[in-house]
Specification:
alpha/beta; Rossmann fold; four-stranded parallel β-sheet; 12 helices; 4 strands
């Protein structure tokens, strides 16, 4: 079983991946996984070889960014490049024949590439209140800046990309971060029943690590399209096959707004490069 965890940054993808790993899915050798950090004390569960391939496919060494209107079409075109496809297949082969899991929020930007290659996979998609996602991302990358509007746009684009790519899949589960924190045991049962065998995995959940909890209406912060998209995602938690109608428009200038926010996040308060190489390279 190939399990792909998808979601925006700071939406619970790390804890869900740890649960899937405890269930029995291989995530990569420990020395090749992103280590624990201040913001992810249990580890981020991101496999360095996967990121290296994404970086190559994205041409980040040439100065490309995924916040470009043509990025998705460029990476999709590489799915017919024999050399790139061979590298992608070799990477999957490294995961072995047993159940394995990949998690990297960056995958949301590469789904037009991967959906042509990885075949029949199982998707686990995390859903968290978009304002909590936006604030958490701000605190992790640029705590002294005001990037909430841009971070909501990032969330909107990533979740729309995930919905478009997974709409035709018959193996998908949407996981609520809020429900997971409130009742880890019940959500663990739901997850492991979906994967095929009930096993104890709820110990991966540490509710004390939740540092953002927005209780005000989303409409106070978000656009109508963002509020409607979140409402639809909540419905997908209970019915993963609810029909997706792509009608959550983004503002015309969103690409440039988000690109500027990424540039701010990739630099410290003194303008020096951020110590997260992933930020500075995209």
């Amino acid at each position: 079983m190939r399990i792909i965890v998808l979601g925006a940054e700071r939406s619970g993808t790390s804890v869900v991946t740890e649960m899937i790993h405890r269930w029995g899915a291989y995530a990569g050798e420990p020395e090749e996984l992103e280590p624990p950090s201040e913001h992810s004390p249990h580890g981020q569960w991101e496999w360095h070889p996967l990121w290296d391939l994404l970086s190559d496919v994205g041409d980040f060494d040439k100065g490309e960014t995924w916040w470009d209107p043509q990025f998705a079409s460029r990476v999709a075109a590489k799915a017919v490049d024999p050399g790139v496809v061979a590298k992608a297949n070799a990477l999957m082969a490294r995961m072995g024949e047993g159940p394995w899991v990949w998690k990297d929020p960056a995958l949301a930007h590469f789904l037009d590439f991967w959906t042509q290659i990885w075949g029949d996979v199982t998707y686990v998609i995390t859903v968290r209140h978009p304002m909590d996602v936006a604030r958490s991302w701000q605190q992790m990358t640029a705590p002294d800046s005001d990037l909430l509007r841009c971070n909501l746009l990032r969330w909107q684009y990533m979740m729309l990309s995930i919905l478009r790519a997974t709409e035709g899949s018959r193996r998908k589960l949407f996981v609520s971060y809020e429900r997971l924190i409130a009742d880890p045991v019940a959500e663990a049962v739901r997850l492991t029943d979906f994967l095929g065998e009930r096993r104890p995995v709820s110990d991966a959940v540490d509710p004390s690590l939740r540092h953002n909890h927005e209780e005000r209406p989303l409409a106070d912060f978000a656009t109508p399209a963002q509020a409607a998209l979140y409402a639809f995602l909540l419905a997908k938690i209970d019915d993963p096959f609810a029909e997706f109608v792509d009608d959550y428009p983004m503002p015309d200038d969103w690409w440039e707004l988000v690109r500027r926010s990424e540039q701010a996040a990739a630099a410290g308060s003194d303008g020096t490069p951020h110590d997260d190489d992933r930020l500075s390279r995209r």
